[in-house]
Specification:
Length: about 250
């Protein structure tokens, strides 16, 4: 099994510090693992013993054994005829801007799969669902739209979710990989929901499909999805009267 596949195993019980090392190894694979254990620990912001414990948890005798197998893997790839043929193979994308763009999106998505260990999604899902305070979403020039989508999803799972919207023109987003990671995170959250929560979401979906609307915010006093999803005509008369009074005041 390739070391990258070992790092991506879903059955690993990683500590937060070990997870930092795994993310670093996957982000700059295989270069990040070719230095010393101390340099890897320093770049990941962890201690040297943490690096040693991680590689032993992965099934290696120590960092030297881990690095030797990584070097052997690199050498095998450099001399692989199939990989050399793949690198030289012409593609139709060279003659089409559309295919070139779709190809780059596919490559970005494929890369995103190998950059984030499954434990990161599980940890993020627990933090989002178990935190007692407010969950705030913030994105960049493009990813602010993804932050808004994630906030819309999260409003169906828990209260206290707020989308900050645009705060600056600085872009710190990754477009397609960010979208895929957001959807994967939501999938992980849904997978951990109880049957009652799943049934509630299904009922909300039925209401939205029946009324051709989406959930909208009830205002700062509730900071959650509106109590009765659907058009205003479907709300109680008291709610409609309140809405009319607010419009008149405005």
């Amino acid at each position: 099994m390739a070391i990258r596949d070992v790092l991506m195993r879903g059955d690993l019980a990683l500590t937060p510090s070990e997870e930092k090392i795994v993310r670093l190894l996957l982000t700059d694979y295989p270069t990040s693992g070719l230095g010393t254990a101390s340099s890897l620990a320093r770049r990941a912001g962890v201690s040297d013993p943490t690096v040693v414990r991680l590689v032993m948890k992965l099934g290696y005798d120590g960092f030297a054994d881990f690095q030797a197998k990584l070097l052997a893997e690199v050498e095998a790839r450099l001399h692989s005829p199939l990989l050399m043929m793949e690198a030289k193979r012409p593609t139709d994308a060279e003659d089409s801007a559309i295919l070139a763009y779709l190809g780059s999106v596919g490559s970005a998505l494929e890369k995103s799969v190998s950059l984030t260990p499954l434990q990161s999604y599980e940890r993020a899902a627990r933090l989002l669902m178990e935190t007692k305070g407010e969950v705030v979403m913030l994105g960049g020039r493009f990813s602010r739209h993804i932050a808004g989508m994630l906030a819309g999803y999260m409003l169906q799972f828990r209260p206290g979710v707020r989308d900050l919207g645009t705060l600056s023109a600085q872009a710190f987003d990754t477009l397609a990989p960010a979208m895929a990671q957001m959807e994967a995170l939501v999938a992980q959250i849904v997978a951990t929901l109880s049957d009652g929560a799943r049934e509630r979401i299904e009922r909300l979906e039925e209401v939205r499909h029946a009324n051709a609307v989406t959930l909208d915010s009830a205002g700062p006093e509730e900071n959650a999805a509106r109590r009765m999803p659907g058009p205003k005509s479907a709300q109680p008369r008291s709610a409609q009267a309140k809405s009319v009074k607010q419009d008149q005041k405005a």
